[in-house]
Design goal:
Elements: E1 2-8, H1 13-16, H2 30-46, E2 54-57, H3 61-74, E3 79-80, H4 97-103, H5 126-141, E4 147-152, H6 154-164, E5 184-189, E6 196-203
Parallel strand pairs: 1-4, 2-3, 2-4
Antiparallel strand pairs: 1-5, 5-6
Helix pairs in contact: 2-3, 5-6
Length: 210
Amino acid sequence: MRRLYVVTHPESVHHVSRLVGGWFDSELTERGLREADRIAERIRELVPEGSEVELYASDLRRTAQTAQAIARRLGVEPALVKGLREKSYGEAEGRAQDWLDERFVPPPPTGDRMNHHEGIEAAETRQELATRVYGAMEAILASSCAHQVVVTHGFALTFVVAAWIDLPLESAGYVSMRSSSGGITVLEQDDFFHNRAVVSLNDTSHLEAV
C-alpha cells in the first residue's frame, strides 16, 4: 500500500493581515507555528513507525516552516519544490485582498476556463498552475517510497489531488478540492487493483485544541 499525506500550511501572516498570498513569501503566525506542531504530531501518528518516508514542500517560507516541524518528528530532511507553490497572483501579491477583489475577473461558466486571464498582470492561469503542480507530482510519484508527505497551499492542493487520481490536465477546468489552513488529506493506492483513493480530505480535527 502506498500513501501520500498532503498538508496545507496553517495560519500565515498574510491570512491575518488580509493580504494576497500566492508567491508573497509570508511566514507562519505564532498560532500557525503551534498548528504546525500539531500537524507534525498527527503525521507522526499516521506514518507507521519504522517506515521509510519522504517529505516534500513548497519552497515558500510558510510551507517550509510547516515542513520543518514535520521533519523534526519524522527525522527526515524536506525537499523544497518550487512546483508545489501556490498560484501566483502577479502584481496583486502582498497587496490588500480588497485590491485584488476589486479587479478580479472570475472565470466563465463555460468555455476555456483553463486559460482564462483574471485581469491581474503577471498572474498565473489555471492552466499554468495545474501544469506546474502536475510536473512536481510526476517527479514525486516517480519515487517508489511507500509513505510520502507533501506540504503545499490551498489552491495548489486541488491539483495535487487531481494529479494523484490521474485526471487529464485538459479536464481540470472545473475541479476544486475544498481546503482550509492546516488540513491533512490522505491519499492511498492499494497493492492489488492499484486504485488510487482519496481516503480523507482536509481533516482538521488535530487543530481543535490549538
